[in-house]
Automatic annotation (TrEMBL):
Transmembrane segments: 25-48, 63-82, 123-141, 147-175, 196-216, 236-256
Species the sequence originates in: Paenibacillus lentus
UniProt KW keywords: Membrane, Transmembrane, Transmembrane helix
Record-given protein name: ABC transporter permease
Matches recorded under InterPro entries: ABC-2_transporter-like (IPR010390)
Length: 268
């Protein structure tokens, strides 16, 4: 594993040199992303404050959901967005074959090479939103809460990274899998911008047991807020984010391995 860490550091050095060469473009890109997601944050804030509460969740509480979701997405996107989004094009034009001749694991080599530094803007905004929510709700950041926050963000990042991987692997069979990712990741994950308890029971079941996005923010947020809005599910779910994250990521990696075994080069 250490040689992957060393490889990752080398790629970071190369990317920093590239950013230094085109730093204005990088800064403008970060600002544009920040403004875009801030507009989304502001829209949610307006909606919640207009109705004062959503199923018993006040504005700072809903914004905590937003912050946890965005922060874990930023971490996952930094590592996995480019490798998964570009996979289809790489298979189509035959450049994926290059990875297979390297004396390294193809998955980890791709993750090391294709990280996306643009997610810095998402990460900074999410930290601001989380800090605002914690301050507004007067949540004490003692050792237990701080450690649980870190564990939650890591678990949520693994869930989001796993979802990106799982929705991209079908490209090994159908080549173009972008539509699947849009539906099962970006559109489906839109539900967790708000407490999932506002939706019908079948949707809650899907977001908990089939597409477990609710573990990214809804369930762990109740630990910090001391809420008991679990609907038909057990309160123990608030502690399961890291377990779900590790399990789902292992499943995603196994699915990637299956895809690699069924990969047929284009020959180009």
């Amino acid at each position: 594993m250490m040689h992957y860490v060393q490889l990752y550091i080398e790629f970071i050095k190369i990317r920093i040199l590239g950013i230094a060469e085109y730093r204005k473009a990088f800064i403008l890109g970060v600002i544009a992303q920040f403004v875009s997601y801030f507009a989304e944050f502001f829209l949610i804030w307006v909606v919640v404050t207009r109705f004062q509460t959503i199923n018993g969740w006040e504005a700072p509480e809903v914004l905590l959901l937003y912050g946890l979701n965005l922060c874990s997405y930023a971490i996952a996107g930094f590592f996995f967005f480019n490798p998964t989004v570009q996979l289809s094009a790489m298979i189509k034009d035959g450049t994926f074959d290059e990875l297979l001749v390297k004396p390294l694991n193809s998955f980890w080599y791709l993750v090391c090479r294709e990280f996306n530094s643009g997610y810095l803007s998402h990460f900074l905004l999410s930290l601001l939103v989380i800090a605002y929510s914690i301050h507004s709700l007067q949540i004490p950041l003692h050792l237990v809460n701080s450690m649980f926050l870190v564990v939650t963000l890591i678990g949520g990042s693994l869930i989001q990274g796993a979802a990106l991987i799982i929705t991209s692997v079908p490209a090994f069979w159908v080549v173009e899998s972008g539509g699947l990712r849009d539906i099962l990741f970006f559109q489906a994950k839109g539900f967790i911008r708000y407490p999932i308890s506002i939706f019908a029971t079948p949707i809650q079941v899907i977001l908990t047991l089939i597409l477990p996005y609710a573990f990214i923010n809804f369930y762990p947020a109740q630990f910090f807020l001391d809420k008991h809005d679990f609907s038909i599910f057990n309160p123990v779910f608030q502690y399961l984010t890291p377990v779900i994250g590790i399990g789902l990521f292992c499943l995603a990696y196994l699915f990637w391995s299956v895809g690699i075994n069924h990969y047929k080069s284009t020959g180009s």
